[in-house]
Design a protein that fits this description.
globular, four-stranded mixed β-sheet, 4 domains, alpha+beta, 492 residues, 23 helices
Length: 492
């Protein structure tokens, strides 16, 4: 409707042209409204296109693909499919989604920044975390320092990618500490929040004076120059390599007769091949143990059980060898073996058992933490010595809490202790600190595999941290929050 004041004005000032003027105003008003509606529709389409652009960039990062794939493959493919299935108008709408190389890179950077900010907020709220740190070299020869973090998030323990920093100089313990310390300070985090550290046991990590762990301990003013846990050994997939080599030994022998192969005379030596079969079996068992220790949400308690189980098998295998049985080593048992060879294998297994005892000195003390696995059992003598009086008092109350006992079977171990935290804070805090430990460097190995895949010969200059964070983080980017403050522009 025409406003009454305007209608009276038109009738008073222009009595002979009132109707024409009113009609003109209505047409102008309707035209303006349609223009506003079209502009609003364009803005809405542009906002959707922006959101779709971020989702597309996230997908590309998760799949570890080059940024150009959006413009060269994904968008053209979507337009073809939409054109065939829905018609040309649908295909034209897809053209409004920004998908250039630079746009995808900016989107990934925005999401990485948001994930980093969100994770920092979670760590500050949690108040404690554990770190898993490792370093390696990328395709360009640059040393990369990778870190993952495990922390309390609501009613469970989470673990995720933390950072990836290119090392400016040699990978010494001092330099590793400097890079990590700077990152924590930049994000308003402090070392007092770090309850444990997991490394691969390299000299630059564990050196007594200049190693990274020593520098950490010095920063915190600790009395001891080692942390509660660090993994001192990593196994390669030698079992598979040796098994394949053993299975192809006859083909390799034939090949060596026509080509210069180092140590080719060994391939014709039955005794040497028999020992090779034993090593292939032995490393195959180590690879199996390594696989069991890997995976997300593994904790120090379950990992220690698996290591203890393997150490028990080493003793069992040695006893079986002494009795003449080799059933646990399928490749070696099929090869001709002398009694003297079995004695060598038995001695070797005993040496391996001793090495495991040295690599994992705290495995024997794992009973001290049985109260974490089963808090409703009566406390053991070892736990009495490890727990404070306040923790023992809360433990006694907790064992009498039948409501919690019913919940225990329904929840994971970390969820259970977090539920207990409000009523039994002291003993729950102790339990959660133990469950926060990283038992292996699995996540760092996973991140390095992703880094190698992303930063290859054709992408050797890629600054990889932002892509890694979006690809590996369990904290999702808040895309709607990222889009909200950005003004949407109509694509052209």
């Amino acid at each position: 409707m025409v406003p009454s004041k305007l209608k009276r004005h038109l009738e008073t000032k222009h009595p002979f042209h009132a109707e024409r003027n009113l009609a003109y105003f209505k047409r102008a008003r309707d035209l303006n409204q349609r223009q506003q509606d079209r502009l609003l529709d364009c803005v809405k389409v542009s906002e959707k296109a922006m959101e779709a652009s971020y989702m597309l960039a996230e997908l590309i990062a998760k799949q570890k693909k080059p940024h150009t794939i959006a413009e060269t493959l994904i968008l053209p493919a979507c337009k073809i499919i939409a054109g065939v299935m829905l018609g040309p108008d649908a295909a034209n709408e897809l053209s409004k989604v920004p998908a250039s190389d630079n746009t995808i890179k900016r989107r990934i950077d925005d999401m990485s920044e948001d994930i980093e900010q969100h994770l920092t907020e979670k760590l500050q709220a949690s108040g404690r975390f554990s770190l898993q740190i490792d370093e390696s070299t990328d395709i360009s020869g640059a040393a990369q320092l990778l870190a993952n973090v495990r922390y309390v998030d609501g009613d469970s323990i989470k673990e995720t990618f933390f950072f990836c920093k290119e090392m400016a100089s040699h990978t010494t313990g001092e330099e590793i500490f400097k890079v990590t310390d700077n990152y924590l300070k930049e994000n308003n985090l402090c070392w007092s929040m770090c309850v444990s550290l997991c490394t691969d046991g390299a000299a630059c990590m564990t050196g007594r004076v200049r190693g990274f762990i020593a520098k950490l301990c010095a920063e915190m003013g600790a009395d001891h120059q080692s942390l509660i846990l660090h993994t001192e050994v990593r196994w390669l997939s030698r079992g598979k390599v040796l098994s394949r080599f053993y299975e192809l030994r006859e083909e390799l022998l034939e090949f060596s007769r026509e080509h210069a192969v180092p140590h080719k005379d060994r391939l014709a030596d039955e005794s040497w091949c028999a020992r090779l079969a034993y090593l292939a079996d032995r490393f195959g068992h180590l690879h199996e143990l390594n696989a069991k220790l890997q995976g997300r949400n593994e904790n120090i308690l379950s990992s220690t059980d698996k290591i203890r189980g393997f150490m028990g098998k080493l003793t069992l295998w040695r006893e079986a060898l002494e009795q003449g049985s080799m059933n646990m080593f399928p490749l070696a048992s099929a090869a001709p073996q002398a009694a003297s060879e079995r004695a060598i294998y038995a001695e070797h297994l005993q040496t391996l058992k001793e090495r495991f005892d040295r690599y994992f000195p705290r495995v024997a003390d794992i009973e001290d933490n049985d109260w974490i696995r089963d808090p409703f059992n009566q406390e053991s003598e070892s736990s009495k010595e490890k727990l404070t009086m306040k923790e023992r008092e809360e433990g006694a109350e907790l064992r009498a809490d039948r409501t919690l006992k019913l919940k225990f079977s329904e929840l994971t171990l970390d969820q259970f202790w977090l539920v207990c935290a409000s009523e039994y804070p002291t003993i729950s805090h102790h339990a959660i600190d133990q469950l926060l430990h990283f038992p292996t460097t699995y996540l760092c190995e996973l991140a390095f595999s992703t880094l190698v895949y992303m930063k290859n010969k054709t992408r050797s200059r890629l600054s990889v941290e932002q892509d890694l964070r979006v690809a590996l983080s369990s904290v999702p980017p808040r895309i709607k929050k990222i889009c909200a403050p950005r003004q949407a522009h109509v694509s052209h």
